[in-house]
Amino acid sequence: MKIIKPLFFLFAIVFSINILAQENNKKEEIKLTILVKDGEGNPVPGAIILLDDVNQKRLTNAAGYFKIKLDKAPKIIAAFSQALGIKKVAYKNNDNIIINIIPNLDTSEIVVKDLNYKDDNTIQFRNIYDYLRGKVSGVYITANNGITIRGYKPGNNRPMFILNDNQVDEATFANIVPTTIKSIQVYKGTETSIFGARGVNGVIKVTTL
Fold first, then answer.
1. How far apart are CA 185 and CA 92, in angstroms?
2. Which of 108, 187, 197 has the alpha carbon at shortest distance from 151?
3. 3-class secondary-structure state, position 175
4. What is the distance between the terminal CA atoms of the chain, rounded to a whole angstrom?
5. What are phi and psi of 70, to 5 degrees?
6. What is the Cα–Cα distance from 132 to 24, expressed in whole angstroms?
7. Model pTM greater than 0.90?
């Protein structure tokens, strides 16, 4: 009997710890329901949702809804519609969020992060990747020349490439000769909306001589 009582109390303690751990894990999970509407209150289907500038890959459904489970609360939630533009809202611990995208409401937020520069020593770089590596803020390039712009998931989202005001594929971008570069602009976050849905993963714009 003396042995059974300590075992019983030990079991009770372990059981209580497991219950508390499960409750804590439940508290960490965040379930968001986002409804995107236009200025007249109509649902916006096919809108892109970005959490802290990270594209969530899925779109709002036919009724304008988007649902997601998260382990960590986002700071900023954005909804982007190619027809209407983009709207950002701060997350305030509300699991049901309505985002109204009103055209031209957020034009002040669409600011180009102009990182123009001209380098007189471009001859030392073997290719465009070497030229950009560690030089442009927010642009990360792997050893295999994979490009990620800050705010987007590494390895999953390639940025949009523009050469002399024309969209190009990465093969064309890779063949840019560093000595011909006049300037480079990098667009990150909400300002990419000026390029439409194509720019949701960030944009690298190169102008050559």
1. 33
2. 187
3. coil
4. 90
5. -130, 150
6. 44
7. no
Neighbours of 199 (CB within 10 A): 19
Beta bridge partners of 59: 48
- pLDDT tens sequence for the chain (209 residues): 555 555 555 555 655 555 555 555 545 688 999 999 988 889 999 888 888 878 887 889 999 999 999 988 999 898 888 677 788 889 988 899 999 987 643 333 333 333 444 454 555 678 888 888 766 667 788 878 888 876 554 445 788 999 998 999 999 999 998 888 888 888 877 677 778 777 878 888 888 88
Q: Which amino acid is located at 147 in the chain?
A: I
Residue 82 near residue 44 (C-beta atoms within 8 A): no
52: left (phi over 0), alpha (psi -120 to 50) or beta: left
Q: Which residue has tokens 């236009």?
A: 38
CA angle at residue 138 from 137 to 144, to 5 degrees?
105
Amino acid type, 62? A
Kindly report the backbone phi and psi dihedral angles of residue 130, in degrees, each rounded to the nearest multiple of 5, phi listed first. Answer: -65, -35
Specify the pairing of strand 54-59 against strand 48-51: antiparallel
For residue 118, the 8-state DSSP code is: -
> Any idea which residue has 């409804």 for tokens?
35
What is the rounded CA–CA span in Å between residue 91 and residue 7? 47
Tokens coding 60: 């709002």
Tokens of 157: 């989202």
Strand partners, 56: none
Q: Which residue has the tokens 């667009």?
A: 187
Please give the Cα distance from 108 to 103 (Å, whole number): 12
- For residues 58 and 50, give the distance between their C-alpha atoms in angstroms, rounded to a whole number: 10
